[in-house]
Amino acid sequence: MYAALWRVLPGPAWVRILIVLVLVAAVLAALATWVFPWAEETFFPAPDVTVEDPAS
Amino acid sequence: MGVLGELLITAGVLVLLFLGWQLWFNSLVIGNEQQDRAQELSESFSGGDEVVAAPAERADPGDPDVGTAPAENETFGNLIVPRFGADWKRPIAEGIGRHTVLDNIGVGHYPGTQMPGEVGNFAVAAHRNSHGDAFVDINKLQLGDPVYVETEDGWYRYIYRSTEYVLPTGVGVLEPVPQMEGAAPTDRILTLTSCNPEHSISERIIAYTVYDTWYPREFGAPPEIADLVQNSAAG
Predict the structure, then answer these.
(1) Does the beta carbon of A10 lie under 8 angstroms from any beta carbon of chain B?
(2) Are β-strands B107-109 and B89-94 bridged in parallel, bridged antiparallel, or unpaired?
């Protein structure tokens, strides 16, 4: 999968490394901006911190 | 290496990244945002004037001014706890809604409990972990530690007295006299609540502090935190 990605990238090795770094940075930014906040909200909401009357 | 193996490794890396983001990076980011907002609030209170430190020897300030109860979700003050860090300062808003107050603003005031400086119980809640880690060090408070509340009127100093552990249903800690339902209050209490143990919902940790004195805004800030409530332009 990643080998295939490497093969389709153009240019000499250092250009490919540069492109890969940019891609990785973009993926990380997307994860931190959209995916992780959604995952936390959906699967791991922070524990409640308040005391509450169970009847209310 | 097969495609399946690469996918599994990718999934593992994603999980590790998520953990690092959730436990460390995101709380750092949100904590800094809360800190910045607290600073903006300090500056709006002082109206751009330089904040001077009150003299160590000063006249008795008398009974503290008590603000009126703010509207829900309105930010009305800052909590300053030197034990939580030399520059630790977080905004306090009315209400304990998760999305409205606790996840974003920082510290939430239990509606219906008293206001800072008022006889009775000024009770607040904040996250122990995540969303800024506001009260992560609540178990590190030591007898005699000062806890300050900054409002438009000035600064209220409370002194940490004791910690209690209760079940999530232990609403007695919010009584005007904590755990004494119906008793007439004579003391001014500030109660901090958070979850316990860390990352868990099984218990609540309650830290009680008792009113000591207050510093009316026009006579200067408590010397210990004067730098922390200074305007960034003036300081």
Answers:
(1) no
(2) parallel
The ipTM (two decimal places) reads 0.82
What is the number of structural domains in chain B?
1
pLDDT digits (tens, 9 = 90+) for B4-54: 999 999 999 999 999 999 888 888 999 999 999 999 999 999 887 888 899
Residue contact A50–B14, C-beta within 8 A? no
Q: Which domain holds residue B213?
A: 32-229
**B108 touching chain A per CB within 8 A:** yes
Dihedral (Cα; B43, B48, B49, B51), 10-degree rounding: 20
A53 CB near a chain B CB, below 8 Å?
Answer: yes
How far does the CA of residue A53 sit from the closest CA of chain B (Å)?
6
The answer to whether residue B161 is domain-embedded is yes
The residue assigned the tokens 């153009």 is: A10
The alpha carbon of residue A12 is apart from the nearest alpha carbon of chain B, in Å, by 24
B65 three-state secondary structure: coil
